[in-house]
Specification:
- The protein has 293 residues and is of the alpha/beta class.
- The longest helix has 48 residues, at 33-80.
- The strands form two sheets. A nine-stranded mixed beta sheet has the order 6-5-4-7-8-9-10-11-12, with helices on one face. The chain has a three-stranded mixed beta sheet with strand order 1-3-2, covered by helices on one side.
- The N and C termini lie far apart (184 Å).
- It is built from six helices and twelve strands.
- It is elongated, with a radius of gyration of 49 Å.
Length: 293
């Protein structure tokens, strides 16, 4: 009885254990072996990428080294080979200037191309020579330099108490001029803006307004006569009738003053008057000086 009854009992216990195992089976953690293998695969891929980058960087360094070696060789060639050094400079544009002196001040003869700065040469020439208006410096390989000069052209020649200077279209004062261009000749005992008649400190520039006045006055000067400037009366000239007329230090109301000159000339002739000086600086108060008997 016990034995027969024991078998069913054991069978029941076995089934209960199996059902318990089935219920508890989902709670058991899944094996991590596949996850570990996946991580290992990721690390292996990263290692491969790092190795590839190292090879690429090494190749780039080799390539840079080769380029540096080539450029170093070229630089050495430019530095030492005579065909890459300036031996002659072509200068055009100013026939009367001393070209050997220009070549000297460039400082380029005997130097390689890469050691010469065209902008610096241009600046040096403009500072050194007043009568150079502009300089275009061109450098070509292997070692060719061309300098094209533009000369300042004076428009005014100022005779200042026996000494002379020139003024170009920009108002710059030149101590000398080789130009053959026609200029307005001014005979003066001072200059516009001078502190006194004894002031001999000539400015480096004349203002645009002063230059405009000179050009305007110069266009009305009788042929063959110079423009005159005095510290006291400003600009004027000697008339064909033999008297001197002044219009002031500016060209304001010039047309009206010229009409006044014609009227005065007629008046003097009709009345047989012989003035020696007429001032129309102030058109509403003209000033006359006659010959004293």
């Amino acid at each position: 009885m016990t034995e027969s009854n024991g078998k069913p009992e054991n069978e029941r216990l076995r089934k209960l254990r199996e059902r318990r195992q089935e219920r508890e089976a989902p709670k058991v953690p899944e094996p991590v072996r596949l996850q570990t293998l996946y991580v290992q695969n990721q690390e292996t891929e990263a290692d491969r990428e790092r190795k590839l980058r190292k090879r690429q960087n090494a190749g780039a360094r080799w390539f840079s080294g080769i380029l540096a070696f080539i450029f170093g060789g070229l630089t050495a060639g430019y530095s030492f080979l005579p065909q890459f050094r300036f031996s002659d400079i072509v200068i055009t544009g100013m026939d009367k200037i001393n070209k050997n002196e220009i070549v000297y001040f460039t400082g380029a003869v005997g130097k390689p191309v890469f050691a010469v700065n065209p902008d610096q040469i241009r600046s040096t020439l403009l500072q050194r020579y007043q009568d150079i208006y502009d300089a275009v410096v061109t450098v070509d390989f292997p070692a060719e330099m061309r300098i094209e000069l533009t000369e300042r052209v004076p428009v005014v020649e100022w005779d200042f108490g026996g000494s002379r200077f020139w003024i170009d279209k920009d108002g710059m004062v030149l101590s000398e001029s080789r130009s053959q261009e026609e200029t307005i000749h001014v005979y003066a005992d001072a200059y516009p803006g001078s502190l006194s008649q004894e002031d001999r400190n000539v400015p480096m520039y004349f203002s645009k307004d002063v230059l405009k006045t000179i050009v305007t006055m110069g266009s009305h000067v009788p042929e063959g006569k110079p423009l005159i400037y005095t510290y006291k009366n400003g600009f004027g000239w000697d008339t064909d009738e033999g008297w001197r007329i002044f219009f002031g230090k500016t060209d304001s109301d010039m047309d009206e003053k010229l009409r006044m000159q014609k009227s005065l000339t007629k008046y003097f002739q009709e009345n047989k008057l012989e003035p020696i000086l007429v001032s129309l600086e102030f058109k509403d108060a003209p000033y006359y000086r006659f010959v004293e008997n």
